[in-house]
Structures are given as C-alpha cells and as structure tokens.
C-alpha cells in the first residue's frame, strides 16, 4: 500500500480509532485538527479530546482552531490553520466527526482532497447524530460511508460503504463501536483506491435524503405519550449520552434499559402512570394503550442498578406518575 502524507481532523473516540488505524498502517500523519479542550464531567474539569490525546502520544502536531473561516469570528485561528495545512503539503485529509465545517480553501488544499468517514449509509442520515437517529427511527441497518467531501453537508460523492444490522438490543454505544471498526478499515481502502485511481466518487442518490440533527438534551426527557416501542428506541438511541430519563417527586431517574411489554392499559391510566412494581421491572403506561417495563434505572447522584437493587433503596408504588 502506498504511504501517504496525511492531515487528520476529528474529535471523539470514533475519530481516534480511525486515526490510530492510519498510523498503524504506516501512513505519515503530519498534522491533526481537533476541537478545543472543554470542561466535562461532574467536576467540569477541562479535558482534551480523544483524538488530541492519541496524537500527542504519537508526537503529531496538534492544532485546535475555534473556526476555519478566514472571515469569521476567529480569523487568527483560521489563518494559522491555513498556514499549517499549506506547509505540510498533504496528499489527503481524513475527516471523522470533527465538529467544524470545512470551507472551500480546506477542501482544495490537499492533493487528493478530503475524505470523510461518516457513520451512516448516505444519503440517509446526513448530519451530526446519524447513529442515534437511525436507532430512534427504528432502522434495521446502518453503516459507514467514505465520502469525497464537497462544500455541502455530507453531500459529497461516495467512495466506499459498509453496512451492519441494527439489532433489537443495540444502543448508540454498541453501534458506534462496530462502526468505528468498519470505518477505520474502509478509509484505508478508500485512500489506496483514490491514490491509485482505482476508486472514483459516485454521486449520492437523490432519493432517501434525511437529516440527523444534533441531539438536544431536552430530547432525553421521556415523553410517556409516545408508544412503548418509540420510548424504548429512544432509551437505546440516547445511551450512553445524554441518557434517557424521567422524573418522580423532583428526582431524576435515568433509564438505562427498558422494553415494551405485552401488558396494555385501559383509558383509566394516564401516560406515565406506574402500573406495577416488582423486582423484574417497573411497568409504566405509555401512549396508544401500550406499556414500558423499566429494567435498569439510575437515581441522580447514585449508581446504575438493576431494578431489584434499585427498589431496595427507593420507594415507588403502583399509581405513582412519572414525568411530573
């Protein structure tokens, strides 16, 4: 395989795995762009991104521009990034969940352009949260697309793609981990194909386009008027973050695992009403006469617990109403 001189742009663990794959394959990664360090966790301690941590261990030069727009709010950051990119004379840039839009001057600088590792089967789920939106929508499959980037939002030509099924128990985390493996391998194939001229981009289909909007924290509040399957998909889609949750008596209860149950309920039970409490689960009335069984719950400030353990330290009775 031809050794290429690369620039990499990415931020989360998904991207760090791809960066590691490029380095392990022997490519020369000369520069890394990643998001600025940000506060996180209970203590709001400022931490570096997984991509930055990996790059620094490898001795790769790291830049963290706040913007790449030369006419934007942080022009000094953009000009410094432009100078660095021009200096390294990269064959290609690989992008994975970076978090900034690449302006045209970036797309035009590497000899072979910019390749994006996108965690969906484009054109379905363009945008920021393709894994979560695929699970939330009830998709039965998803995948990774390696795309030749253009100025649009995930609109570039397709170089390679690989698919996986979404199983009934899959969460955003489990799908993420499988797609990260696939993406790290596919981008190596795509780089080799583009460099050798054996792979050229294919325009995306015009049918089936949809947008995976960034997850807003308010979406994680369980809406008990939805039917049970929709609620359970949200629990899986928002795990591990932001984490689906409900409230009871001013206490936030994070739901880690739930399933639709055969038990229905009549018109007398309001949505969110607790129908039954037992060590096997808490049965809650949902929309359209359906019910959800909560199997693993975490109280704010507490530990993630199976229901039997949770109920030993927390009182919840039939007739209680969640989400109020």
Q: Care to describe what's here?
A:
The chain is α/β, with parallel strands linked by helices and 324 residues long. The protein has two domains: 5-212, 3-Layer(aba) Sandwich (Rossmann fold), CATH 3.40.50; 218-312, Formyl transferase, C-terminal domain (Methionyl-tRNA Fmet Formyltransferase, Chain A, domain 2). The chain has eight helices and 17 strands. The strands form four sheets. It has a seven-stranded mixed sheet with strand order 5-2-1-6-7-9-10, sandwiched between helices. Strands 12, 13, 14, 15, 16 and 17 form a six-stranded antiparallel sheet that branches. It has a two-stranded antiparallel sheet with strand order 3-4. Helix 1 (13-24) packs parallel to helix 2, helix 1 (13-24) packs parallel to helix 6 (172-196) and helix 5 packs antiparallel against helix 7 (228-237). The longest helix has 25 residues, at 172-196. It is elongated and about 70 Å long. It starts with a strand and ends in a 12-residue tail after the last helix. The mean pLDDT is 94. It catalyses: L-methionyl-tRNA(fMet) + (6R)-10-formyltetrahydrofolate = N-formyl-L-methionyl-tRNA(fMet) + (6S)-5,6,7,8-tetrahydrofolate + H(+).
Sheet/helix structural class = alpha/beta
Q: Give me the strand/helix succession.
A: EHEEEHEHEHEEHEEHEHEEEEEEH
Strand content: 25-35%
Q: Strand sequence of the main sheet, in spatial order?
A: 5-2-1-6-7-9-10
Separate helix tally: 8
Q: Low-confidence stretches at least 5 residues in length (pLDDT < 50)?
A: none
Average of the residue pLDDT scores: 94
- CATH architecture annotation of the largest domain: 3-Layer(aba) Sandwich
Strand elements, count: 17
Shape: elongated
Organism: Candidatus Symbiobacter mobilis CR
Protein name: Methionyl-tRNA formyltransferase
Domain Formyl transferase N-terminal: 6-190
Family: Belongs to the Fmt family.
């Amino acid at each position: 395989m031809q050794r290429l001189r690369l620039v990499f742009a990415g931020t989360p663990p998904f991207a760090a795995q791809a960066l590691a794959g490029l380095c392990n394959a022997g490519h020369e990664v000369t520069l890394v762009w990643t998001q600025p360090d940000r506060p996180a966790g209970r203590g709001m301690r400022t931490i570096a991104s997984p991509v930055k941590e990996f790059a620094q261990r490898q001795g790769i030069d790291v830049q963290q521009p706040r913007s790449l727009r030369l006419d934007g709010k942080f022009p000094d950051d953009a000009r410094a990034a432009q100078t660095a990119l021009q200096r390294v004379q990269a064959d290609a840039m690989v992008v994975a969940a970076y978090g900034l839009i690449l302006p045209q001057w970036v797309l035009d600088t590497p000899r072979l352009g910019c390749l994006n590792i996108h965690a969906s089967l484009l054109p379905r789920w363009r945008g920021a949260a393709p894994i979560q939106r695929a699970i939330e929508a009830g998709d039965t499959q998803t995948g990774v697309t390696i795309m030749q980037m253009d100025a649009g939002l995930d609109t570039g030509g397709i170089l390679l793609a690989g698919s996986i099924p979404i199983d009934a128990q899959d969460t955003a985390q489990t799908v993420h981990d499988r797609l990260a493996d696939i993406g790290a391998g596919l981008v190596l194939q795509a780089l080799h194909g583009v460099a050798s001229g054996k792979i050229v981009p294919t325009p995306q289909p015009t049918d089936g386009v949809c947008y995976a909007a960034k997850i807003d924290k308010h979406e994680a509040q369980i809406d008990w008027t939805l039917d049970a399957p929709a609620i359970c998909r949200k629990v899986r889609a928002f795990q591990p973050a932001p984490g689906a949750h409900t409230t009871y008596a001013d206490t936030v209860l994070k739901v880690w695992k739930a399933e639709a149950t055969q038990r229905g309920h009549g018109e007398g039970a309001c949505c969110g009403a607790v129908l039954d409490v037992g060590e096997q689960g808490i049965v809650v009335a949902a929309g359209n006469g359906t019910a959800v069984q909560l199997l693993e719950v975490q109280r704010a400030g507490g530990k993630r617990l199976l229901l039997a353990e949770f109920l030993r330290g927390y009182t919840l009775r039939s007739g209680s109403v969640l989400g109020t």
